[in-house]
Amino acid sequence: MTLKHLSVLAEDDDDPMLSAVNLVDVFLVLVVALLTAVAVQTQTSAHESVTIIRNPGQPNMEVVVREQGKEVRFKGVGSAAQGQGVRAGVAYKLEDGNIVYIPETGVAPADAGAGAADPAKP
What we know:
By secondary structure, the chain is an alpha+beta fold. The protein contains 2 helices and 5 strands. It has a 3-stranded antiparallel sheet with strand order 1-2-3, with no helix packed on it. Strands 4-5 form a two-stranded antiparallel ribbon. A hairpin with a 5-residue loop joins β4 (89-93) and β5 (99-103). The N and C termini lie far apart (115 Å). 0% of the residues are buried.
């Protein structure tokens, strides 16, 4: 090999556009990786169960429940609920803030006695 041949290779390495092209390639790979991560996260979160309460305690309170890709919205009317019903169970608030619901056994469902007369009423 001659020194003249080596100097030709050295001249090609001085081109500043080569480093810019390499940076563009690196950023393209990063963008594709980020888009893939977002797509995977969106697919996994679509199957989770989530409950969101918007404006808690306000007259326009809304509860949004997402289960298995389906979304159900419950909107408050700004007043307390009224109607007849039966006791279905007891709820306890634990020290850590969790609420535990314990259903009562032997309680008839609310719609089972809808057509029958209540013996406690005159």
